[in-house]
Amino acid sequence: MEIELREVTAENLPGLLAIRIPAGQARFVGGQIQDVMADADKFPEANPWSRAVHLAGDVVGFVMISWDVEPDPPAERG
User: Fold this and answer.
1) pLDDT tens digit sequence for 20-68
2) Is 58 exposed, middle or buried (0-12, 13-18, 19+ CB in 10 A)?
3) Burial of 16 (0-12, 13-18, 19+ CB in 10 A)
4) Which site among 1, 24, 40, 77 is 20 to 30 Å from 69 CA-CA?
């Protein structure tokens, strides 16, 4: 089986939003996918790069990285 990282699109977004993080893994992630994506929109200076993880054509996960981020991000801007 082939794993692919694909751009987040209107086509795969519903599959991404249906993903729920198991309680035992919550401490390893920044929140639910919709919350993480909303935070990325608030801080474009962090250069967020997000992708839907597809396995055999199905959405199975989400990955986001950022670069050029200050070690202690500034407080949320109003």
Assistant:
1) 888 888 888 877 888 888 988 998 888 899 999 999 989 999 999 887 7
2) exposed
3) buried
4) 24
pTM for the model: 0.76
**Phi, psi dihedrals of residue 39, rounded to the nearest 5°:** -60, -40
d(CA 70, CA 67): 9
Rounded to whole angstroms, how far apart are CA atoms 66 and 75? 17
Sign for the CA dihedral angle at 17, 23, 24, 29 comes to positive
Q: At 22, list the tokens.
A: 């198991």
